[in-house]
Amino acid sequence: MQRPRTRRFLILLGKSILAVLSLAVVPLLYAEGYAIWYAEYHLGLPTEAEIAALPATGHLCPLEAGSPYVALADMPLLLRQAVIASAGADFQTRPNLVLPAMAAAIVKGDGRPDTRITFAVTRHCLHALAPDCCRGLDWHIGSTVFMGRLERTLSRERILDAYLNDSYLGRNAYGVAAAAPAHFGKPLTGLDVGEIALLIARFQTPSPSERDSARRSYILDRMLTAGLIDQAQATAARAAPLPPIDGAPRKP
Fold first, then answer.
1. Domain containing 119: what range?
2. Which of 35, 45, 51, 124 is most enclosed, with most CB atoms within 10 A?
3. Position 8 in a domain
4. Are residues 140 and 157 in the same domain?
5. Is 45 exposed, middle or buried (0-12, 13-18, 19+ CB in 10 A)?
6. Helix, strand, or coil (residue 107)
7. Helix (H, G, I), strand (E, B), or coil: what is residue 25?
8. 122, 141, 164, 187 from 131: Cα distances, Å
9. Can you tell me the distance from the alpha carbon of 201 to that of 206, in angstroms, rounded to the nearest whole number?
């Protein structure tokens, strides 16, 4: 006699949950609409048409004149793969960013999509294209809207290209082509596994420090987990000496 009641209760509970979730979508859509309107008319963000008109090759949003550029296809494959493994494993496969989807992912416990690569390009391009655009809370609204516009307008390859060529990597070097000789005294194509790992660490911490060994090991672990290198390569890279700071040699 209890089973029909239990079943009716579960059905009612399920319908109630669906109703609540449906109501939750409305404020999310309203929030997205308001954020887009605010960014469009109050902040003056670059539009998708303006983003689409940016150069198809070369520096996407240059800030520093004279920085060398190297096409994505001409970069070491290991570098490109390791950057994605360490800074956005789902970068090439996840859907484009929209505010309701990001909020829904957080509500469901999936977490916010990993946006480190797109966010770095967003920060750089906002400074270059609209230097007086955003401050304080406006920055958070503007950067979120602009990230979505970048991903809806540009290919993931173009965004990755800009990330690798336009990011500041310390020692007055913008992009990996300038950072390789600045940090290691050799061209980008001459870097070994450990140097590639340390170069990738420069995206988060541009200045050399005593934590470089730990940062290099972290990137090597991500490369190893992704199957980009084997255990012997990781062990050898960890044992290699670190580049000197101000001429002083360092141990691994």
1. 20-167
2. 45
3. no
4. yes
5. buried
6. helix
7. helix
8. 12, 15, 21, 32
9. 8
